[in-house]
Amino acid sequence: MTAPNEQTAKAQDRLYAEACSGHAPAIARLARAIERDGDRARDLEQDIHLALWRSLAGFDGRCALGTWVYRVAHNVAATHAARGARSARLVTLEEAGDLPTNANPEVEAGEVQTLTRIRALIMTLEPADRSVMLLYLEGLEARVIAEITGLSSTNVAVKVHRIKAMLTRHFAQGDPA
């Protein structure tokens, strides 16, 4: 017979494996979006994974596992940002991520530059607005973002609309961020 603590640990490990299989790339993107320095982003990502694994001991299934993962990641990232751990340097081309390869290197360079400008503009947002926008860019619905952030879904929808309009305006004006 298996001891209760051993069963809990196995369940926790199983949930963690399930959470990672579906959400590890999103956690990595969140860490890179919050922390521009590569080493610090990896540290933040590890902190999120550790907090997630620890938190799963208390997961009772009242919400979707994905919502739980994003909530933990959001809380760890918010705490990290509140401590002032963010770096002010710009994202390098290597850190900008993998973009689809175009036949035209000028078009590809333009896409990298555009992505870098958009990320820089997002980094200028207040931490709460940045979190909402990053979750939106992950493809989450307002209802799910509301569960994660503690805002109402109407407030999330309004924030997303206003942030998109503001980012579009700044981007069109050529603001470097």
UniProtKB/TrEMBL annotation:
Domain of life of the source: Bacteria
Gene3D superfamilies: 1.10.1740.10, Winged helix-like DNA-binding domain superfamily/Winged helix DNA-binding domain
Cited PANTHER family: RNA POLYMERASE ECF-TYPE SIGMA FACTO (PTHR43133), RNA POLYMERASE ECF-TYPE SIGMA FACTOR (PTHR43133:SF45)
Family affiliation: Belongs to the sigma-70 factor family. ECF subfamily.
Domain RNA polymerase sigma-70 region: 23-86
Protein name: Sigma-70 family RNA polymerase sigma factor
Species this protein is from: Sphingomonas plantiphila
InterPro entries documented for this protein: RNA_pol_sigma-70-like (IPR039425), RNA_pol_sigma-70_dom (IPR014284), RNA_pol_sigma70_r2 (IPR007627), RNA_pol_sigma70_r4_t2 (IPR013249), RNA_pol_sigma_r2 (IPR013325), RNA_pol_sigma_r3/r4-like (IPR013324), WH-like_DNA-bd_sf (IPR036388)
Segments forming domain RNA polymerase sigma factor 70 region 4 type: 117-167
Keywords: Sigma factor, Transcription, Transcription regulation
